[in-house]
Amino acid sequence: MLDMLARGKHRFLSNHSRRTRLRRQRQLQAMPAMPTPYLGLIRSPAKATWHRTWGHQLRVASYNVHRWSGVNGRKLDPDRAGCVIAEFNADVIALQEVLRPFDAEDPLIQLADTLQLHVVFGVTRLHRRGELGNAILSRWPAQSAESLDLSLTRGERRSAIVVHYKEAARTLSIVATHLALVDRTRSRQVRLLLEHPHLQNGPVVLLGDMNAWRPTQATRDFERLLGTHDNQAWPRTFPAAAPLFALDRIYTRGVHLMDLQAHDTPAARKGSDHLPVTARLSWV
């Protein structure tokens, strides 16, 4: 899989024809104006795959892909982040700052098809280059999905997506989000998430860029109500080249979180301005 992803600079953006790009442009132009946030994509991989059962443990990851533009944010190059995501070999992956370009091939669909994963994408806002938001990639199809508006100020659009999965008698809710920069706003967003009616029952995993620059009421609320991990400290993930801050986190309720760590590889230090975090989950 890694060899396939590493082959050629234009792997993600050149596999489809110009006709496909033009068709997407026409579809977007024909769409009526929609208030953000909204669910922009729910899709199974193009090639049907056999999906293993959940088993006793699951592997999860969270990654801020920085609009597919690497460390400096200047040039669209989804290959870099795509190679990092392939390294995880995770069952569920939450992505933040995902860009679906207006005038180029869709890196998110290309990535999901290459890794043979199901994808749910929630649009937080319209960026000048495309739709920008959160995504969840998974080995299993979603039973249901919804977009949550966490925008509490005019100047900063924020959202979360919630995807519910079911296998036999087991259920699992995955939440992917990217919280505000301002402490007070972030605390209110945490309360909105923790009080959401669809997150009150059953196991929940919350993943994302929490912008946790320092301990605040928001992080204390998460740790009090969702629990923490078995490590001594949160792994540092930002900036990727020399991590100082533990911005990217995973919280759980109803499942045990183990082996939480930053995915620090040479590719990850170039793929985005954040390092990913990965963990294993076991059923309580």
CATH topology: Deoxyribonuclease I, Chain A
Gyration radius from CA atoms, angstroms: 18 Å
Low-pLDDT stretches are none
List the helices and strands in order: HHEEHEHEEEEEHEHEEHE
Instruction: Give the assembly state of these chains.
Output: single chain
The amount of beta strand, in percent, is: 25-35%
Number of strands: 12
Q: Please report the distance between the alpha carbons of the first and last residues.
A: 32 Å
Provide the CATH top-level class.
Alpha Beta
Give the CATH superfamily. Answer: Endonuclease/exonuclease/phosphatase
| CATH architecture term | 4-Layer Sandwich
Strand order of the largest sheet: 1-4-5-3-2-12-11
The number of helical segments is 7
Sheet/helix structural class: alpha+beta
**How many structurally independent domains?**
1
How does the overall form come out from the CA principal axes?
globular
- Largest sheet data: 7 strands, mixed
What are the salient characteristics of this protein?
alpha+beta; 33% strand; 22% helix; 7 helices; 12 strands; 5-stranded mixed β-sheet; globular; 284 residues; Deoxyribonuclease I, Chain A; 7-stranded mixed β-sheet; single chain
Structure description:
- The chain is α+β, with helices and mostly antiparallel strands and 284 residues long.
- It has a single domain (2-283), classed as Endonuclease/exonuclease/phosphatase (Deoxyribonuclease I, Chain A, 4-Layer Sandwich), CATH 3.60.10.
- Helices cover 22% and strands 33% of the residues.
- The protein has helices spanning 2-6, 18-30, 78-88, 107-115, 183-194, 217-225, 268-271, and strands at 38-43, 57-64, 92-101, 118-127, 130-138, 144-149, 159-167, 170-178, 204-209, 248-253, 255-262, 277-283.
- Strand 7 (159-167) and strand 8 (170-178) form a beta hairpin.
- Helix 5 packs parallel to helix 6.
- The longest helix has 13 residues, at 18-30.
- It starts with a helix and ends with a strand.
